[in-house]
Amino acid sequence: MKLLLQTSLEVKKHCESLDNKGKQELYRQVLEEAKVAIESNDIDQLKKLSEAAVAMEEVSEKELLESFDDENPLKEANIVVERDGLTNYLFSLGDSSKLYDLRENKEEALYQAIKSDDVELVKHVLIVLLSSDFEGKVDLKGLVKLLSKGYEELNLSKDMKNYLERKIGFCRFLCDFKFDEDPIELFANRSEVDYEIDKFLLSLITKKTKEEELLSEISSMIELLKKYEKFDGLEYKIRRLKSELESGKSKYSTEVIRDSIKEREKEMEEIKEKYIKSVDLIDERKRLVKQLLRTVAQ
Predict the structure, then answer these.
(1) Sequence-ordered list of residues with C-beta below 8 angstroms from that of 195, at least 6 positions apart, any chain
(2) Structural domain contains residue 54
(3) Among 56, 73, 90, residue at a domain's last position
(4) Are 237 and 264 spatial neighbours (Cβ–Cβ below 8 Å)?
(5) How far apart are CA 43 and CA 138, in angstroms?
(6) What pLDDT does 19 receive?
(7) For residue 107, is it within any domain?
(8) For the ranges 11-20, 132-141, 146-155, which has the lowest average pLDDT?
């Protein structure tokens, strides 16, 4: 497309010279090319198409392009790219076709993900950022700095603030952790449950434990922590889906959102019946601490 050889300003001027039908046709062509670029894994082309689409959106009436939302592969996009053994992740937010490239600018991408107030998106971004096959991955101290910047500067929901507080706390714990420290002592001295820190310490304790019965108890606690964490995640996702349903801003139909809510509510109920109702996490943790301390004393 000749359009891709133009700057954003030139695309805007060209778009403004067209009538409404011409704008819609050009926008449709850009979206069709974007679908092809995604299928062929042509990320450079896809990013150029994203820039063109954004330029057109900025000079067109929103209502004029709304009919393309359902078929727009650039909106609410989540694209994982594997190339030359390396992983990259591109995503877009809300009503814009602007793609954020994690490899190209990880600071901006993470900041925008936090700004979106979508905890699941931030989780996904962090998984890629911290993966061993991501080029330019950040260290934990750098991650604490990036997460703290978003936490301090942005007006965030309670859900996002709580998530960032836990994630920053976990990263700081790992930064300060020394492998010659006794994981049993650290686990026993923690006054509150923290899913990630507790799972990390228990995984280390497992490596030092030979008694089969105790190993089974530790494994059960790790599984219980995972279920509680999963339950909290589902609870958050349902709140977010219900909010999208009420606002009417989602690209997905009401029926699809309601079905998604029902599926997650069913999964929550299963976890609740099997784990949460029958087992108190805090009591189980205290019981395991006593067992571990007895083992150390022997």
Answers:
(1) 166, 225, 226, 228, 229
(2) yes
(3) 73
(4) yes
(5) 22
(6) 94
(7) no
(8) 132-141
In a domain, 86, yes or no: no
Domain that holds residue 68: 1-73
Residue 202 near residue 195 (C-beta atoms within 8 A): no
Of 297, 282, 289, nearest to 188 (Cα)?
289
pTM: 0.86
DSSP assigned state of 227: H
Looking at the 3D structure of the chain, how many domains does it have?
A: 2
Tokens 């998106």 locate to 121
- C-alpha span between 165 and 188 (Å, rounded): 22
Q: Are 170 and 198 in contact (CB under 8 A)?
A: no
Cβ(140)–Cβ(174) below 8 Å: yes
Written as six digits, the tokens of 29 are 């062509």
Q: How distant, in Å, are the alpha carbons of 8, 10, 22, 81, 180 from that of 39?
A: 24, 28, 26, 11, 49
CA 262 to chain centre: 22
Buried b (16+ CB within 10 A) or exposed e, 177-205: eeeeeebbebbbeeeeeebbbbbbbbebb
Q: How confident is the model at residue 134 (pLDDT cuts 50, 70, 90)?
A: low
Q: Any alpha helices (H) in the chain, and if so which ranges?
A: 8-16, 20-39, 43-59, 62-65, 106-115, 119-129, 140-153, 158-176, 183-189, 195-208, 212-247, 254-271, 281-297
Question: What are the Cα distances from residue 6, in Å, to 57, 58, 60, 74, 100?
Answer: 16, 16, 18, 19, 20
- Final residue of a domain: which of 13, 43, 73? 73
Tokens of 188: 């026993």
